[in-house]
Amino acid sequence: MKNKFNRLFHSLVIAGLLIILFSGCVEKGVSDLEWYKGNLHTHSYWSDGNDFPESIMDWYKSNGYHFIALSDHNILAEGDFWKSIPDQPVNRKAFEDYLKQYGEDWVNYREDSGRLEVKLKTFREYKPLFEEEGRFLMLQSEEITDRYEDKAIHLNASNIQQLIPPQGGESVIEILQNNINAVLDQKEKTGMPMMVHVAHPNFKYSLTAEDFAALTGERFFEVYNGHPAVHNMGDSLHISVEQMWDLINIAYMEKGQPLIFGLATDDSHHYHRKGLRWANSGRGWIMVKADKLDAESLIESMETGQFYSSTGVSLNTVTYENQLLKVTVNPDPGVEYRILFIGCRRGESFAKVLLESKGPASEFKVNKDISFVRAKVISSRAKENPNYEGEFEVAWTQPVTYSDPG
Ligand SMILES: [Zn+2]
Ligand SMILES: [Zn+2]
Question: What are the structural domains, with CATH classification, of the chain?
Answer without folding.
Answer: 37-81+120-310 (3.20.20.140), 315-406 (2.60.40)
